Amino acid sequence: MTAFPAAPLPAAPAPGRAAVVAGVGGYVPPNLVTNEDLVARLDTSDEWIRTRTGIATRHVVSPGTATSDLAVEAGRRALKSADDSQVDAVVLATTTPDHICPATAPAVATRLGLSGVPAFDVAAVCTGFLYALAAGSGLIAGGIAERVLVIAADAFTTIIDPQDRGTAVIFADGAGAVVLRAGSPREPGAVGPIVLGSDGENSDLIGVPAGGSRQRSSGVPAAPGEEFFKMNGRATYRQAVERMTETSLRSLAAAGWQPHQVDRFAAHQANARILTAVAERLGIEPERQLSNIERVGNTGGASIPLLLAQASEEGSLVAGDRVLMTAFGGGLAWGAATVTWPAL
Predict the structure, then answer these.
(1) Which of 31, 115, 222, 317 has its CA 20 to 30 A from that of 254?
(2) Are 252 and 10 in contact (CB under 8 A)?
(3) Digit-coded pLDDT (tens) for 232-249
């Protein structure tokens, strides 16, 4: 395994105050796309897609549906799970905002009946949820908020070239959310130390070339196709496996856990091969891994909270489970965190 430079472990939460998971919710749009649907228009096969990604079906937005629509529904479900309709702040992680400007979070907050509370977007691609979780936890730890709604939502198919086999078979749309409340670092649901990292030198591995100020200010029109998401699959695979493994180990060390003490491994659902490789390096057997990639594909930043919501609803994630979360995405950005799942 390649050794990457490691940042110092995060400081322990302030004594007596921590962000605690109080509710969870997830949502995928109703429009289902099967592998057979993709085979009809791409040079691929069901076997090829399943073997390389582990995906059988995915959900995609219908015309006119935006990221905010997904975020509102997931947020509403998380608030209902927490048995509360009010929070002090909203943090939205997304790579596909409704508009370049303004941020999408204020509109989401207003539609949820939370007009007036601080609301802002976080951009960290597939690691967005963990970055947003860190922001929400920081608001609580700093005494700025008592309750925070953290949402991750992506309409990823709106930035995917429908004719690009390398991305069209992988990415999908969805949203997930958690409600955080102020509590004790020793109680179930308390978010453990969050480990984050980034590497801008490799930002060209994942991204959308056109549409930002770099391209717009150049005076050169975007080349055909540059408005779509691009990914260097082979290099991304290597980086994802190495970074997710390394940051998971650092998160476990910060929490005082060993890999064998993890009950549920909730990794970003990038593709099945990455998930298997990371779990094997950590020594986490398949029966301890949570996965929904076969049903929903890669939903970007929404991946982890959507997975948690579905697993909690289905009963594969229960109170007392020690959960390790990790993700990797464009930026490059990565992260990991732990939580002992509460009774919801």
Answers:
(1) 317
(2) no
(3) 988 999 999 999 999 999
